[in-house]
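R.M. (postdoc): so does anyone remember the format we settled on? I'll just put the structure tokens first.
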């Protein structure tokens, strides 16, 4: 797990009024996050959030996370910048209050996302990492980059060659059969 796991809170350290936090990752932490995500660089990572005591051992996390990554375009492999702006919204609950297995439809439509409290610790950094990971474009493209004619031979293929994937083998067989 990334070094963001150090962004956590012990349950007994959260005051009744809650906690408001503004956190900016230093260069070492940003590079650790970029490495974990398989990206060349993370230029900035800022999280603003509140943790509220909801009673009965539950804690609400709400806020936002903003980051800027250097990524590689999937078409040209040129570096590009991607900004990530995501919302944090979940409820930390003791393991005994975690909802049971729900049907996929119910889970997808549920209003609240639940996170377990493990060893009396709220793992806010893990949640932030997961939100960042989910917020990144799986196929980043530079402006104007398209697959276009990738894999085509400059339009020189004949109708017979382009007829099916084994057209070249068929042509070889035909040429072999015609050879004396």
């Amino acid at each position: 797990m990334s070094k963001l796991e150090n962004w956590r809170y012990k349950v007994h350290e959260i005051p009744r009024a809650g906690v408001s936090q503004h956190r900016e990752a230093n260069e070492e932490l940003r590079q650790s996050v970029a490495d974990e995500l398989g990206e060349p660089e993370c230029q900035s990572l800022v999280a603003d959030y509140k943790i509220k005591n909801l009673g009965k051992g539950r804690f609400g996390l709400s806020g936002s996370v903003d980051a800027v990554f250097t990524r590689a375009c999937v078409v040209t492999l040129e570096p590009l910048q991607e900004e990530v702006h995501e919302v944090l919204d979940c409820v930390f609950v003791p393991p005994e209050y975690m909802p049971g297995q729900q049907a996929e439809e119910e889970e997808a439509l549920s209003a609240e996302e639940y996170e377990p409290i493990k060893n009396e610790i709220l793992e806010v950094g893990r949640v932030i990492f997961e939100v960042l990971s989910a917020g990144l474009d799986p196929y980043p493209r530079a402006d104007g980059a398209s697959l276009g004619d990738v894999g085509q031979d400059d339009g020189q293929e004949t109708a017979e060659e382009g007829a099916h994937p084994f057209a070249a083998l068929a042509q070889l067989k035909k040429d072999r059969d015609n050879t004396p």
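R.M.: ...and that's the designed sequence above, right after the tokens. Also worth knowing: The CA atoms of residues 94 and 117 lie 5 Å apart. The helical segments are 27-37, 104-109, 124-135, 167-178.
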